[in-house]
Design goal:
It contains 2 helices and no strands. It is an all-alpha fold.
Length: about 60
């Protein structure tokens, strides 16, 4: 399906291995800094791609 949408994936991901051990009884992460770093890295990469593609399409529109 991604090929039909002319979409690509990004390498980074955010996952919660052993979820029962990394969240407290209220669903809050026990070590928020670790998760925040992973989320920030992935979102920074997605933002870079989005900005780059937006700028490129303004200069040279993509015909599907």
């Amino acid at each position: 399906m991604f090929a039909e949408l002319h979409a690509v994936t990004v390498r980074d991901s955010v996952s919660f291995h052993g979820a029962w051990a990394v969240f407290d009884e209220h669903g809050e992460p026990l070590d928020p800094a670790v998760r925040s770093s992973a989320v920030k890295n992935m979102l920074d990469q997605i933002e870079w791609w989005g900005t780059t593609l937006r700028d490129a399409r303004a200069v040279r529109p993509y015909a599907a």
